[in-house]
Amino acid sequence: MQNHIGTVHVIAVANALEMAMVFLAEATIPKHLRWIPKGMELSYPAKANTDLICEAVSDPSTWAPGDLAINVVARRSDCTAVVEGVINLWISEKPVR
Question: Where does 10-93 sit in CATH, by number?
Fold first, then answer.
C-alpha cells in the first residue's frame, strides 16, 4: 500500500504492527488472563521505502492485570526503524464461567 510519495502508507504499517502485537499477545498471555488494546503511540523516524519487518516485544513476566505497554517497531530491509512506538493494553482476569 503506497502513498503519494512512493512509500508504504503509515496506517498500513500501523496495522501490521498491531498484527505483530496480537501474535505476541496470544502466544504470551497466561491462560487465566485476557487483553484489550487501549491505544497506540507511534513515531515515523524514516521513510518506509522497502519491504518491512514488524516486531512486537514484551517480557513474559510482565503479563499481569493492569496496564501493559508493548514495544513495536517496523524496519526496512537495511534494518532502519521506519515506525516505532508502543501499543498499550489492558490486562484483566478472565471471568469464571
Answer: 3.10.129.10
